Amino acid sequence: MPRQARLDSPGTLHHIIVRGIEKRNIVDDKSDRINITSRMGELALETETSIYAWSLMTNHMHILLKSGPYGLSKFMSRLLTGYAITYNIRHRRHGHLFQNRYKSIVCDEDVYFQELVRYIHLNPLRAKIVKSMSELDRYPWCGHSAIMGRKKREWQDIDYVLSWFGKNRDNARKIYRKYVKEGIEEGRRDDLVGGGLIRTLGGWSQVLSLRKSKDKVLSDERILGQDDFVERVIGEADKRIKGQISINERKLDAERKIQEVCKRTGVNIEELKGGSRRGPLSELRARLAMELVRDYGLTLAETARQLGVSTSAVSQILIRLKRLSRN
């Protein structure tokens, strides 16, 4: 049976599941755990990949991330290949360490983000690696401890996760912890760990062919989302298959877009990028932020640089616009 392609479009939310070959260990001790998590962190910063949640188990690993400008495949290839080489050398073994293919599930952020963060961070508790929430709060091999402020992970996007639970960090942290604790009784969620998915580079032709069987696509577990989300993912194939442009080209296109909008609206571009909130500037900046992320595939960090604001400011803009669109 031929492999399904993956969705490898920058700015896509993915639930990644990596398993050891034949259910064997992927980590044996603390040194291995430090190795793979530090690699993940360094690569996340280098490739502008946003890591929201993760849990490292003995024979598998979960990661919730939003792919950066270089896409998912390069990030995962460098992470898994680099780690496997050092693991094999250290443990004097040969051959594959991971299953041939990691699972990647494209997710509807609006619907599933909070549930996925909770599900992934409860993995050590479900597996009885830790015995209580208080132990999980301190457990170093799971992203939950960083969100709780017990472990420092500069590469983990804690602020974005907490922004889903409130504006004040301390209060948001309490609400987040309560939400995670409430998920213990749910146990394993098979609906959150389904199959692989479709990717941009080299894969969109296969996606387009699925239009002939649209009803089947809309219920396909490779994409975690409701029908309208799945349909939108398929529809975006038309736009993306026309050409995969480099991050530098996208930056230039974004700059031209900003100049064009400023000229059309009579706004001084330096004033826009200077953080001024005069007149229509805040509303214009918000609209541009949404377009740069959604239509140009820029990361929150690059969008912030383009608009002269902080990454957290862009994040808050997008959250506010999403909430407004729901009302």
Give the gist of this structure.
This protein has 327 residues and is α+β, with helices and mostly antiparallel strands.
Report on the structure:
It is a single chain. By secondary structure, this protein is of the alpha+beta class. The chain has 16 helices and 5 strands. The chain has a 5-stranded mixed sheet with strand order 2-3-1-4-5, sandwiched between helices.
Count of helices? 16
Beta-strand percent range: 5-15%
What topology, given as strand order, has the largest sheet? Answer: 2-3-1-4-5
**CATH level 1 name of the largest domain:** Alpha Beta
Jot down its keywords.
327 residues, alpha+beta, Alpha-Beta Plaits, 2 domains
Fold topology:
Blueprint: E1 13-19, H1 30-47, E2 50-56, E3 60-66, H2 71-91, E4 103-107, H3 109-121, H4 123-126, H5 133-138, H6 144-147, H7 158-163, H8 169-182, H9 204-209, H10 214-217, E5 223-224, H11 227-240, H12 247-265, H13 269-273, H14 281-294, H15 300-307, H16 311-326
Helix pairs in contact: 1-2, 14-15, 15-16
